[in-house]
Write a structure and sequence with these properties.
6 strands; globular; alpha+beta; single chain; six-stranded mixed β-sheet
Length: 141
């Protein structure tokens, strides 16, 4: 049976494969630092009564993109390109929802929410500010 950790890793492969040739790369875990332009995959709180019903699992992952704030408009343009519904030059939606990008078998993956661009710091020791944009990705397997 496929685990959440395996699906998280598969999501990273799908993103990295689909965004190949762009400046973005994805990491399966939040980690201690961010090296923008980077995409981090996390697992927000969920109610297991609804996630693990019947023969299928459905988990929504939070996938956040970080770009340098010093990049100004260029960083925001990179974050906006991730929102394109399709395409091979920066669409995270296209990368996630294209089944051939996945290294594991899932029934489907879809972006269910695209958040607005915000400004944040990362971790407890990092004083730099970053632009970020969160995406929610539902994966069913």
């Amino acid at each position: 049976m496929t685990t959440i950790a395996e699906v998280r890793a598969g999501l990273v492969v799908a993103i990295n494969t689909g965004l190949g040739g762009t400046p973005w790369y994805a990491a399966a875990y939040v980690g201690e630092q961010v090296n923008p332009p980077e995409i981090k995959v996390s697992l927000p709180a969920f109610d297991p009564r609804f996630v693990f019903g019947e023969a299928k699992k459905s988990v929504t992952f939070r996938v956040s993109a970080y770009a340098t704030r010093a990049g100004g408009d260029a960083s925001e343009i990179l974050l906006d390109a991730l929102c394109e519904p399709t395409g091979t030059t920066g669409s995270r939606i296209g990368a996630v929802q294209t089944s051939t990008n996945w290294a594991i078998t899932v029934d489907f993956a879809q972006v269910t929410q695209v958040g607005e661009i915000g400004v944040t710091t990362y971790g407890t020791n990092d004083v730099a500010e970053y632009f970020f944009r969160p995406f929610d990705v539902e994966v069913v397997w």
